[in-house]
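BUG-107 | component: ligand-complex export | severity: low

The export step for FE2/S2 (inorganic) cluster jobs runs without errors, but we want the raw record kept on the ticket for reference. Input record follows.
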Amino acid sequence: MTKVTYHSPTGSDVTLDVPPGVSIMQAAVKGGVDGILADCGGQRQCATCHVYVPEQYADQLPPMSEDEDDMLEITACERTDRSRLSCQLVMNDDIDHIDVELPEHQR
Ligand code: FES
């Protein structure tokens, strides 16, 4: 189980326990976290699950695919070096805790 903390730009943070095999997006939608829309349901077709991942967690995450890289070009908020699609960030037991920052908006 991974503890994922979603940091909102408004300062309201939410921490969820995310089982292995579940993405950061799926957990957010199920847990009612504001700021993750996930319009395409995780098919890498919407970029409304955009999050910023602090650099210290980058090595623990699955590598970015070409499709994810392409979709990050159409995020509503600025793409940075820390940008990822949360639907592609599937948790596993090797990750104890991770913080993600939510963008100001997804559309
Ligand atoms: S949920 Fe649509 S790209 Fe992630």
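Assignee comment: Attached the raw record above. The mean pLDDT is 97.
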